[in-house]
């Protein structure tokens, strides 16, 4: 029988993506080559998928944890055991930025390589896997453009074009929607990518080979992008796209969210997790959970609190103003610590004897650390005083466990977006019913019992949008989207920029005694700066005149 040796080398390079763990389907290889009926593009799909949401440790640390998760206000550095103050990344750092830009900029090549195999006339032609690739491209480009703004899109990867133009966000958004429409039309009523070896099945670690779930995901992504573009300067396509999306199947409670199960056996240099950072470097790399998140959960009796975070260790904390090198702002910073405990409703005692102040914090309490504290406040922010991520989030590698999943796109967001459309009068849906279902779907991701979710919805004002002004109702929806994006910092950050909520994050900081104002002068970060290499493209010079200066404070099109 005919053998396909051309693909042998590449398939062997990808064996780890399909055979090195129990989560990625095993692939047995014939040492003399692959028979025609043994080769499928599905063996390339797994690698493409997990590298977008679980890249190796280098970008996972720098892109996710150092930037997006902290811009989102979910995680904080700056405690007295940390290597850094919490001003890190609010002050531009070329090395960390380059890591993020390099990862996202280079990921496109993975998509294009896969598309070459599965496109019409390709060696492994499969129209349904090509549709998958268009949807993955949409997921990727939405993250990429919402991080940096204008990026190469229409000419990216086009044969013969080595220096593609940087496209405006409005162009990229409309291009993504067009690709999603094409993908959904291709899928139609199909349920699988083929039969036998051509059925993506378990090699598809997003949807398990279910093409109708891919279609629902694509339509939900279309709705997200259109809602984000709504009312941006010059926008003329969002309302039509929103209505189209609302009239077609979306991610729902019957079919659930699209999440990627974390693999805790595969090497951190292939697919990383938070635990690879937490456990490999000692206390210096540890982080705490942000006060905005903890307080919002705690103040509203949210049952996700203990799933998201662990209680603070607590203990006795002594503060003394060093007589040899006194801090002129000692009392201000000490008062800040006390105010933080008060805002958290913490159980503590404070005693002052001479020049020494002792704060006793009872163990077992959820206390969040304020965001963006500066280097001078650093010694006052005691690690054991604050909550850290739950064990599910910082799970160590070594065995398959029920750890947090990587969020691709959730049914919760689908319902929140539908509720927002109803509140804005775009659709006639029951906003409260949609909102409540979204909350229940968000809690399912963290295994919250249905009864606890029902109680929260029935008793907490945070879960009620039946009354209030339009802005007040939209604020509650934005808060739930932000909460549901925990561990998906890129999306949570985008929610804050787009909606302005949570307001205390979007407002930035101004007290330079306590906070690190960074290069932003205290403003909330609106984007990341381009990494090294972007300037080598002669078309880069046009970006400033359209988008603005290459600064973190430059507001992107969707957030204007």
From TrEMBL:
SUPFAM superfamilies (alphabetical): TPR-like
Keywords: Lipoprotein, Signal
Database matches in PROSITE patterns: PROKAR_LIPOPROTEIN (PS51257)
Signal peptide range: 1-21
Name recorded for this polypeptide: SusD/RagB family nutrient-binding outer membrane lipoprotein
Organism whose genome encodes this protein: Flagellimonas spongiicola
């Amino acid at each position: 029988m005919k053998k396909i040796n051309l693909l042998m080398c590449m398939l062997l390079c990808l064996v780890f993506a399909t055979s090195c763990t129990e989560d990625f389907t095993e692939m047995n290889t014939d040492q003399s080559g692959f028979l025609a009926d043994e080769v499928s593009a599905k063996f390339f799909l797994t690698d493409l998928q997990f590298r977008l949401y679980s890249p190796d440790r280098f970008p996972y640390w720098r892109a996710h944890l150092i930037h997006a998760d902290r811009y989102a206000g979910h995680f904080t550095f700056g405690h007295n055991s940390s290597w850094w103050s919490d001003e890190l990344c609010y002050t531009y750092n070329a090395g960390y930025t380059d890591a993020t830009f390099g990862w996202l900029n280079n990921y496109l090549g993975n998509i294009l390589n896969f598309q070459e195999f599965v496109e019409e006339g390709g060696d492994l032609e499969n129209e349904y896997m090509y549709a998958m690739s268009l949807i993955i491209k949409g997921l990727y480009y939405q993250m990429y453009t919402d991080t940096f703004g204008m990026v190469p899109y229409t000419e990216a990867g086009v044969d013969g074009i080595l220096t593609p133009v940087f496209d405006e966000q409005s162009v990229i958004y409309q291009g993504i929607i067009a690709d999603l429409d094409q993908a959904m039309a291709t899928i139609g009523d199909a349920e699988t990518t083929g039969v036998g070896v051509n059925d993506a099945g378990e090699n598809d670690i997003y949807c398990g080979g279910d093409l109708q779930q891919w279609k629902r995901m694509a339509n939900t992504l279309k709705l997200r992008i259109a809602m984000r573009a709504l009312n941006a300067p010059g926008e003329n396509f969002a309302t039509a796209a929103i209505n189209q999306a609302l009239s077609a199947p979306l991610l729902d409670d019957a079919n659930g969210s699209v999440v990627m199960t974390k693999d805790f056996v595969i090497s951190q240099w292939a697919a990383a997790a938070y635990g690879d950072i937490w456990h490999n470097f000692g206390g210096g790399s540890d982080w705490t959970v942000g006060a905005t998140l903890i307080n919002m959960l705690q103040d509203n009796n949210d049952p996700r609190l203990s799933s998201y975070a662990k209680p603070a260790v607590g203990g006795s904390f002594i503060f003394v103003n060093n007589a040899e090198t006194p801090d002129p702002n000692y009392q201000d910073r000490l008062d800040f610590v006390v105010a933080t405990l008060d805002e958290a409703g913490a159980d503590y005692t404070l005693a002052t004897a001479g020049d020494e102040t002792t704060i006793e914090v009872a163990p077992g309490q959820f206390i969040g650390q304020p965001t963006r504290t500066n280097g001078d406040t650093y010694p006052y922010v005691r690690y054991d005083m604050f909550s850290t991520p739950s064990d599910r989030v910082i799970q160590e590698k070594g065995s398959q466990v029920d750890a947090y999943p990587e969020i691709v796109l959730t049914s919760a967001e689908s319902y929140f977006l539908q509720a927002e459309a109803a509140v804005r009068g775009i659709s006639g849906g029951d906003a409260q019913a949609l909102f409540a279902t979204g909350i229940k779907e968000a809690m399912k991701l963290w295994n919250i019992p249905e009864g606890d979710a029902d109680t929260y919805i029935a008793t907490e004002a945070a879960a009620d949008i039946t009354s209030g002004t339009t802005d007040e109702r939209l604020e509650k929806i934005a808060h739930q989207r932000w909460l549901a994006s925990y561990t998906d910092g890129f999306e949570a950050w985008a929610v804050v920029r787009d909606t302005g909520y949570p307001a205390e994050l979007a407002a930035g900081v101004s007290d330079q005694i306590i906070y690190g104002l960074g290069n932003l002068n205290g403003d909330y970060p609106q984007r990341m700066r381009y990494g090294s290499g972007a300037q080598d493209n002669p078309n880069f010079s046009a970006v400033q005149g359209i988008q603005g200066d290459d600064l973190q404070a430059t507001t992107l099109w969707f957030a204007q």
